[in-house]
Amino acid sequence: MSSQPFALDIATALTFIGQTVLAEQKWEQEPESYWHCVHIIGVVLPVPGVCSDAYFMVVNVAHEKPFPSEMFFADIRTIRAIRHRDRQSSGNVLGRMTRPIPVRSGAALPARRDGIPVAMNGSTGAAHP
C-alpha cells in the first residue's frame, strides 16, 4: 500500500457531517492499516496556537461509548459514506471511495491473438482440439 496520505480538505470534510462512513486509518508506527465504521458528528478545524490539526469527531458504530473520539485527517487513507438502503434499492450500500493513488495490477493483457479479438478471460471462443 502506498505511504502517501489521503488529502482531505475542509469543504469535503464538512459534507461527511451526519453520515455513517467506512474509513481506513494508517499510522506510521503500525505495519497495517485499520478500518472503522463510524458516525461523523462534527469537524474540528485547525486554529493557530490552539489546535494545529483538523479532525472528525466520531462515534464508533460498534461501541456503546456515549462520548465521541477524534479521527485526525492526517491518519485517514480512504473514506466512504455508507448510504442507507430501501427495499427498492439495488443493494449498493457504499458511496464513492476516494483513493489517493489508483490501484492497478500493471499486468498487460493481449488485446488480440492472431488478429482475432480476445475476451477479458483470454478466450477466443474457438474450439481447440
List the helices and strands and how they pair.
Blueprint: H1 10-15, E1 20-25, E2 34-44, E3 55-60, E4 69-72, E5 76-81, E6 112-113, E7 116-117
Antiparallel strand pairs: 1-2, 1-5, 2-3, 3-4, 6-7
Oligomer: single chain
Low-pLDDT windows of residues: none
Q: Cα distance, first to last residue?
A: 43 Å
The backbone outline, from C-alpha atoms, is extended
Task: Write up what this structure looks like.
This protein has one helix spanning 10-15, and strands at 20-25, 34-44, 55-60, 69-72, 76-81, 112-113, 116-117. The protein is mainly beta and 129 residues long. The model has no long low-confidence stretch (mean pLDDT 75). Helices cover 5% and strands 29% of the residues. Strand 1 (20-25) and strand 2 form a beta hairpin. The protein starts with 9 loop residues before the first helix and ends in a 12-residue tail after the last strand.
Summarize the structure.
By secondary structure, the protein is mostly beta strands.
Offer a few descriptive terms.
mainly beta, 29% strand, extended, 7 strands, two-stranded antiparallel ribbon, 129 residues
